[in-house]
Design a protein that fits this description.
about 190 residues, alpha/beta, Rossmann fold, two-stranded antiparallel sheet, 5 helices, about 25% helix, binds pyrazine-2-carboxylic acid, binds zinc ion
Amino acid sequence: MTAYDPTAALLVIDVQNDFADPAGSLSVPRAGHILPRINDQVAKAVAAGALVAYTQDWHPPSTPHFAKDGGIWPVHCVAGTWGAELHPDLVLDGPIIRKGSNGEDGYSGFSMRDPQTGEERPTELQGLLRERGVTRVVVCGLATDYCVNATALDATKLGFETTVLTAAIAAVNLKPGDDERALAEMAEAGARLE
Ligand code: VGL
Ligand code: ZN
């Protein structure tokens, strides 16, 4: 079981209506099942004095991230819309980091990649964690094969001891098995799957 303390941070990735609600435009199968588990973890983290940080996919109406503009995704999480809002059942108790605001593929909570130039830029998440002396991160949320995967991989690269809560994540699975491949990739990178 994950033990939280002030050196740990729980990262709650993209639990937004477009992913987490069955009516969302990029609805993730089983997302509804993981919400109570995420809320349990939020309660545990807060009780132990660990930071809880939330990410939000936050896209402009047109971005090369979307299929209509040359990318691969249906329009989702457009800034200021219902779909971009954090799910109403999610317990909120910490800072929110938005990514993708300038049209980047914001898969990782830690970095944003310009889809045209490939250039990577950091979000404010790393600074926030370092400021608070956080050395361990615990990752949950959506989706296993994209934002959870990218965030956990970046966390290991940045030297955070990284745990992924396999009961509190769910996958898009554009291709069957994407979830298993993402789990293997995270484990390979040194993340602990719990
Ligand atoms: C995500 C696909 C597109 C995610 C974001 O949050 O995993 N997936 N944008
Ligand atoms: Zn997106």
